[in-house]
Specification:
The complex is a heterodimer.
Chain A: E1 5-7, E2 10-13, E3 19-24, E4 31-37, E5 44-50, E6 53-56, E7 65-68, E8 75-79, E9 88-95, E10 107-108, E11 112-116
Parallel strand pairs in A: 2-11
Antiparallel strand pairs in A: 1-3, 3-8, 4-5, 4-9, 5-6, 7-8, 9-10, 9-11
Chain B: E1 4-6, E2 11-14, E3 19-25, E4 32-38, E5 45-50, E6 54-58, E7 61-66, E8 71-76, E9 85-96, E10 99-104, E11 108-113
Parallel strand pairs in B: 2-11
Antiparallel strand pairs in B: 1-3, 3-8, 4-5, 4-9, 6-7, 7-8, 9-10, 9-11
The chains are: A mainly beta, B mainly beta.
């Protein structure tokens, strides 16, 4: 069964350092999402891509976060500089294109657990 | 008030019990209603998906949506220790090209005691 891949699974970094996370969606999935999940909370959407284009990044703190999906396949989320409050699980999800009257399901990867010290 | 409210629990039940999990929402524009299961330190796994009011059954799981009351439920029959996890409700809003954006509840942590 195809899965969303993410790496690294765990990352510990000091505040003010740069950190990057990678996501490889399920093959053929045009839509890719990055979510942040703080401990004890549900995931919150950071950014949505359709192929290589950003559909919505209104919840992405753009002063320190950036996301790209250059070839419309895998994606990278970067934080620079990291702050203590960025400690969370960063989840990637993907879905295949829906039709005019149908939509599809989002499948999540295992996540990257970030700890900022 | 958050758009999606979910009692975080924790909820502890004996094996074989019927479990009821609930969420309320305030945005009437939500079109899709989902339940995800998340084991500790893992990504969410889609359990149930529906877009209309009424019941949808899949094995031991039944999802119920009442759009008029803005209320969704997940029932688990004959609960098993392997059902111990955090259950997240999620509401979807169409974002074009057959995709949607999800707004999640906080999650309810369930423990099924053997």
């Amino acid at each position: 069964e195809a899965e969303v891949a993410q790496s690294p699974r765990y990352k510990i970094t000091e505040k003010s350092q740069a950190v990057a996370f990678w996501c490889d969606p399920i093959s053929g999935h045009a839509t890719l999402y990055w979510y942040r999940q703080i401990l004890g909370q549900g995931p919150e959407l950071l950014v949505q891509f359709q192929d290589e284009s950003v559909v919505d990044d209104s919840q992405l703190p753009k002063d320190r976060f950036s996301a790209e999906r250059l070839k419309g396949v895998d994606s990278t989320l970067k934080i620079q500089p990291a702050e203590l409050g960025d400690s969370a699980m960063y989840l990637c999800a993907s879905s295949s294109p829906g039709g005019a009257t149908t939509t599809t399901k989002q499948y999540f990867g295992p996540g990257t657990r970030l700890t900022v010290t | 008030q958050k758009e999606v409210e979910q009692d975080p629990g924790p909820l502890s039940v004996p094996e074989g019990a019927i479990v009821s999990l609930n969420c309320t929402y305030s945005n009437s524009a939500f079109q899709y209603f989902m339940w995800y299961r998340q084991y500790s330190r893992k990504g969410p796994e889609l359990l149930m998906y529906t877009y209309s009011s009424g019941n949808k059954e899949d094995g031991r799981f039944t999802a119920q949506v009442d759009k008029s009351s803005k209320y969704i439920s997940l029932f688990i029959r004959d609960s098993q220790p392997s059902d111990s996890a955090t259950y997240l409700c999620a509401m979807g809003l169409n974002s074009g090209a057959g995709s949607y954006q999800l707004t999640f509840g906080k999650g309810t942590k369930l423990s099924v005691i053997p």
